[in-house]
Amino acid sequence: MSDKIIFRDLQVRTVLGNDSWERKKQQPLLITAEIHTSIASAGKNDKVTESVHYGIACKRATSFAESNHKLHSLEAFAEGIAKACLGVTGRALAVHIVARKPRALLHAEYAG
To answer: What are the residue boundaries of the Dihydroneopterin aldolase/epimerase domain, all occurrences included (predicted)?
Structure first.
């Protein structure tokens, strides 16, 4: 059984999409990540360095989003975010990413 480190609805801005009108300027995206890890050692020793630091995970996700403007699909974007989160300390066992693109569809709150 693993524990989870979670951040929900991290807002980032990036250029993402297949259509030319989507690629003209940065758009907001919302990222939720559940990073599976063990927090037993960190809790016992009171050392965040023995777990996954959610602040560092958020910074890596934001950095990835802001520097990867060649992606076209939300799926490729989510895959990149997952790899960024997995590489935080090497202590992540798995990661689940939900990436949402607000206002991507006319009659929906978001696409994701």
So the answer is: 5-110
The string of DSSP letters for the chain reads: --EEEEEEEEEEEE---SSGGGGSS-EEEEEEEEEEE--HHHHHHT-GGGS--HHHHHHHHHHHHHH--S---HHHHHHHHHHHHHTTTS---EEEEEEEEETSSTTSSEE-
Domain chopping of the chain, boundaries: 3-111
* Rounded CA separation 87/72 (Å): 23
Q: pLDDT tens, position by position, for the chain (112 residues)?
A: 479 999 999 999 998 887 777 778 888 999 999 999 988 888 889 988 888 889 999 999 999 999 987 888 999 999 999 999 888 777 888 999 999 999 877 888 888 8
